[in-house]
């Protein structure tokens, strides 16, 4: 356990010295995850609580092929979630395949080598990760640090991913101590949104991609993002 806390301290110092370093942020989140967990048990329980979730677990139906099928997504009508998601990905030039490569670069090992306790634990965690940028679009958060804090507060709370929401809270508090209270406000707003919204992890996202974005937000009870 001692080496885990040493790694946590080292990676936190990295983030403090350069809060714009994405790779340092990944290492910090992973160090926190080693200690407090990644929420796999909660995610499995949530998936098992709905018919679609149970079917997805039984068939091990991955979303990776869906979120990376950009030809299909670009062919969807304007205004649909899928079309808006791929527009977001193209504008930001961020794609799931790149994130997988970034994880490997930051950690020195691939996501497939991370211990999630069981094959089903690995499956639900992959699902959570592959949906990250979809949730940016649905929740309306940008990809800057404040947006990431909002995402991690909301989805981390819903899925019991203590490592994410605690690491985000630490970063928000650190920003507050540096004279930037706005990030704490973003964190708490995301935390409150998690309680009001439908569980995002268990949704049939392949079908939702074909629906208008605003209709999806209404269905999932996603109130508008609070003004900063």
Number of strands: 0
Sketch the major β-sheet. none
Low-confidence stretches: none
Structural class: mainly alpha
Alpha-carbon Rg, integer: 17 Å
Q: Counting H and I runs of at least 4 residues, what is the number of helices?
A: 15
| Mean of residue pLDDT values | 90
Percent of sequence in beta strands? under 5%
State the main characteristics.
single chain, 69% helix, mainly alpha, 228 residues, 0% strand
Q: What does this protein look like?
A:
The protein has 228 residues and is an all-alpha fold. It has one domain (2-219). Helix content is 69%, strand content 0%. The protein has 15 helices and no strands. The longest helix is centred in the first third of the chain and has 16 residues, at 2-17.
Short characterization:
The protein is mostly helical and 228 residues long. It contains 15 helices and no strands.
